[in-house]
Design a protein that fits this description.
It is built from six helices and five strands. With 171 residues, the chain is α/β, with parallel strands linked by helices. A five-stranded parallel beta sheet has the order 3-2-1-4-5, sandwiched between helices. Helix 2 (55-65) runs antiparallel to helix 6 (155-167). The structure holds 4'-phosphopantetheine (PNS). 4'-phosphopantetheine is lined by residues 15-17, 44, 46, 80-81, 109, 112-113.
Length: 171
């Protein structure tokens, strides 16, 4: 079926670890959702990072944080991202770029993905200035060290994080 412009619907994938989802992620989701017919936020599992929230908790928190966005869907994927995008019928990957320090990693991954699937484009959205320093790793560290992290994450994420911390045994 064609979209309102008479074109094939554009599905974009916004992949990430989202552990936890931050206000910076939500800003990228909101902006990308205006550019594509459907935006699939795809929670991947990155073996290099020790998870704070389970994949199910991350997906639930993302669902709760995006109820105002009708064309956003939350999903999860394992394995190669480009294979997942192809399975979803998507040719666009969205990534957020904060500082220049993000560039080296994003450049290497987008080149790898381009080699694996030349038809897929990676589109970068520059983070808004106020979110340019927010990283999941920093929010996680704040939370684990007892600092107030609530202004850096959407409300539903803060609630879930507080619950996880409260249920966690003291070390
Ligand atoms: O939020 P993150 O941690 O930067 O997200 C990284 C993610 C999940 C997008 C990345 O690790 C990924 O794409 N993983 C899937 C494996 C893959 O396809 N790697 C790139 C080519 S080798």
């Amino acid at each position: 079926m064609l979209n309102s412009s008479g074109l094939m619907p554009r599905i974009a994938i916004y992949p990430g670890s989202f552990d936890p989802p931050t206000n910076g992620h939500l800003d990228i989701i909101e902006r990308a959702s205006t550019l594509f017919d459907t935006l699939v936020v795809a929670v991947g599992t990155n073996s290099e990072k020790s998870p704070f929230m389970s994949v199910n908790e991350r997906m639930a928190a993302l669902n709760e944080s995006t109820t105002h966005l009708q064309n956003v869907r939350i999903d999860t994927f394992k394995g190669l991202l480009v294979k997942y995008a192809q399975d979803q019928g998507s040719r666009v990957l969205v990534r957020g770029l904060r500082a220049i320090s993000d560039f080296d990693y994003e450049f290497r991954v987008s080149m790898a993905n381009k080699n694996l699937a030349p038809e897929i484009e990676t589109v970068f959205l520059i983070a808004k200035e106020e979110y340019s320093f927010i990283a999941s790793s920093v929010v996680k560290e704040m939370a684990q060290l007892g600092a107030d992290f609530s202004k850096f994450v959407p409300g539903p994420v803060a609630e879930r994080m507080a619950k996880i911390l409260a249920e966690r045994p003291e070390d």
